[in-house]
Structure formats: structure tokens, C-alpha cells
């Protein structure tokens, strides 16, 4: 049995008998981990953009509905209903954004801390090396002046 390329990315898939979420039968193993993660990041960015656009459009519509002019009772009731519908869609968008934020917090908390620690340590070593070089240059310049 030929296995696809090994990656560190979790690739969840639906059970073969599941009917709720249709996924491709062949996993996308031709992508590298970085490409897969970039795709997921792009999906999250699009979802956040859509929800924020819903909030902005809803607020603009509610403000436009709040105009003061000569209105009859039917028009007032109609605009009240439109404002209520917009507010409900804005609430759904806000809840979706909160859910996305919660998911991101969990991903950060449950992520691979060893990789983060390695990157932090490598950056610390680089900064310390730069600091030592700068101190040596400063000492050499000070010696030249004195």
C-alpha cells in the first residue's frame, strides 16, 4: 500500500457512511503542510471578512432606515421590521465572530508549544549575537576615540 507524503497537519475527514458533510473521497495529500495551513488561514480570513461586512452593511442599513420624514403607520411598521431583521443578522454575525475567536484561542492554547519555543530560542540567540557584535563595534569605536 503506497502512502502519501507524511505531514504534521491533521486532515480530518468524514466517515464513509456520513451524509452530513460531503468531502472529497481522495484526501488532498499533494499539498505540503504550509500550503494546507495557508489555505485554512485564507478560509478563516474570508469568513471573518464576510461577517464584518455583514455587520457594517447591517449598521448602514439600520442608519438609513432611521431617517425622519413624513411616514404613515404602515411604513413605520415596515421599517421597524426591516431594522429588526438587520439587527438579528448582525447578532448572528457577531456570534459567529465570537465563535471564530474562541476557536482561534483554543488553537493557540493547544498548539505545538515546542515549535514556538524553538523559534523563540532561535530568535533570542540571533538577537544576542547581534547585541554582542554591536557591543564589540562600540568598544572598537570607543578605543579609536580615546
From TrEMBL:
It is found in: Nucleus. Pfam families: Med22 (PF06179). The keyword tRNA processing does not apply. One of its GO terms (cellular component) is mediator complex. InterPro entries: DUF3140 (IPR021487), Med22 (IPR009332). PANTHER family: DNA-BINDING PROTEIN, POSSIBLE DNA-BINDING PROTEIN. This is Mediator of RNA polymerase II transcription subunit 22. It comes from Trametes versicolor (strain FP-101664).
Amino acid at each position: 500500500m503506497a502512502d502519501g507524503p507524511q505531514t504534521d497537519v491533521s486532515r480530518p475527514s468524514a466517515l464513509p457512511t456520513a451524509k452530513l458533510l460531503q468531502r472529497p473521497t481522495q484526501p488532498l495529500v499533494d499539498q505540503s503542510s504550509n500550503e494546507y495551513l495557508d489555505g485554512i488561514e485564507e478560509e478563516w480570513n474570508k469568513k471573518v471578512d464576510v461577517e464584518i461586512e455583514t455587520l457594517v452593511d447591517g449598521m448602514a442599513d439600520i442608519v438609513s432606515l432611521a431617517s425622519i420624514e413624513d411616514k404613515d403607520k404602515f411604513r413605520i411598521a415596515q421599517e421597524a421590521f426591516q431594522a429588526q431583521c438587520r439587527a438579528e443578522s448582525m447578532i448572528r454575525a457577531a456570534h459567529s465572530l465570537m465563535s471564530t475567536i474562541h476557536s482561534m484561542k483554543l488553537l493557540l492554547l493547544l498548539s505545538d508549544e515546542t515549535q514556538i519555543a524553538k523559534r523563540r530560542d532561535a530568535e533570542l540567540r540571533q538577537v544576542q549575537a547581534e547585541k554582542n557584535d554591536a557591543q564589540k563595534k562600540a568598544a572598537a569605536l570607543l578605543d579609536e576615540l580615546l
